[in-house]
Design brief:
single chain; alpha/beta; seven-stranded parallel beta sheet; four-stranded parallel beta sheet; globular
Length: 424
């Protein structure tokens, strides 16, 4: 087993060659990676089964769903890599070009960041997404997956590295830390001189640990306390459909809704319908009902019906990642905006309304990476945004914000061409 330091040294040594690799060679290798994943599906599923078995006593069923792979999900991983291959190569793209009065030609050109470390938790598809995006954008990656998906991630990376090797390329363009201890995560956080950017992708604890302890530049990807505000002008069926999708289509992901805010003028009519859609109807279909954790006003409206409890203040600051939804009644859009400003993590927030003035006010005042008007928050995703896949959802404002794809994995440099000019 290679040590983390050895992996970091090999990654750094490989970076200069990948930075100048022609687009057609990168695309051909990506297609080989995709084909290899599908051809060795059984091998990946076998490794994933080991992870799932280990997790059964420690993770909830919803979180195990994040971990579990099947043929369809592996096919989606492979398609994500193929999608990346079809995207325009950002490396070398001219962003600006200016001729100065002294005759100097100044060209601003997009370049890879270098070596990118990614620390993530229990979603094995992140392994292939990160590997493909970093490779296409000219960056060497050093992946450090969580112990929950350790066997799956090792299997996936082994296949990607073999595809690189069979393409005549350096397999160290894609790397994975073979040690799942805290020390290996610390090695990436402290990898000055080896890691050019660190991207944590996971829960609040992981992200906080990286932001607080990293000695290398860290791009903060966010936990998702995502809100849906239902205005008095909202179409009822549209609002119910959006909330059901945002909460239940995959509750364990960061773009799932965690808080529902309802305008007080429609609360008495709307909340019973919400309970019917998320609780009663789902139970009748043998689907997990959603637990509604209601503030005082909402609880008074829904008290006495199943799956309704009183909310605690912390429920409005919790990423449940489960079939739980915090519900609050607000006076109007302004109170809704104030609540979101106080409690949102800046990931994705939504308004359902027909009043265009209210929608414009919400979009202007809610400072999140993605603001939705009459659409589910579940669309905050690199694939859905046309980026092929994503390295994470950035909730910070410097360098990158929202789904991070190929362009967000690049920096830029200035190339200045002269004819002997000297500064006076």
């Amino acid at each position: 087993m290679k040590t983390t330091q050895q992996i970091l040294r090999e990654a750094k040594a490989a970076a200069s060659a990948l930075a100048v690799l022609p687009t057609e060679i990168k695309n051909a290798a990506l297609l080989k990676m995709a084909d290899a994943l599908e051809a060795r599906t059984d091998e990946i599923l076998s490794a994933n089964e080991q992870d799932v078995l280990r997790a059964k006593n420690t993770l909830s069923e919803v979180m195990i769903d994040r971990l579990r792979l099947d043929e369809r999900r592996i096919a989606a991983m492979a398609q994500g890599i193929r999608d990346v291959a079809t995207l325009s190569d950002p490396v070398g793209k001219v962003l600006e070009e200016t001729t100065l009065p002294n005759g100097l030609l100044v060209t601003k050109k997009r370049v890879p960041i270098g070596v990118i470390g990614i620390i993530y938790e229990s979603r094995p598809n992140v392994t292939s997404d990160a590997g493909a995006l970093c490779f296409k954008s000219g960056n060497v990656c050093v992946l450090r997956g969580g112990k929950e998906a350790f066997s799956s991630s090792l299997s996936i990376v082994a296949i990607l590295r073999e595809a690189l090797k069979s393409s005549g390329l350096n397999e160290n363009f894609i790397n994975i830390v073979e040690d799942s201890s805290r020390e290996s995560a610390t090695a990436l956080m402290h990898g000055v001189g080896f890691i050019d950017a660190l991207i944590p992708r996971g829960g609040a604890g992981l992200i906080r640990a990286c932001v607080e302890n990293a000695k290398v530049p860290c791009i903060q990807t966010g936990t998702g306390i995502c809100h849906v505000f239902v205005d008095e002008s909202a179409q009822t069926e549209r609002a119910l459909s959006i909330i059901e999708n945002a909460k239940t289509s995959r509750p364990s992901v960061c773009n799932a809704e965690e808080v529902c805010l309802v305008h007080e003028k429609i609360a008495r009519e709307f909340l019973p319908l919400l309970h019917e859609r998320l609780c009663t109807a789902r139970k009748e279909k043998n689907l997990p009902p959603v637990e509604l954790r209601c503030d005082k006003t909402a609880y008074e409206i829904l008290s006495g019906v199943p799956h309704v409890t009183k909310a605690e203040e912390k429920d409005f600051d919790t990423e449940f990642l489960d079939y739980i939804l915090a519900v609050k009644v607000v006076k109007d859009v302004e109170e809704g905006i104030l609540h979101i400003r106080s409690h949102s993590t800046g990931h994705s927030d939504c308004i359902v309304a027909e009043d265009e003035t209210v929608c414009e006010r919400f979009a202007l005042c809610v400072d999140s990476a993605a603001v939705y008007i009459n659409a589910s928050t579940r669309f905050t995703d690199g694939g859905e945004f046309g980026k092929g896949c994503e390295i994470g959802i950035s909730t910070q404002k410097l360098h990158a914000r929202g789904p991070m794809g190929l362009e967000e994995l690049c920096s830029y440099k200035y190339i200045v061409k002269g004819r002997g000019q000297v500064r006076v």
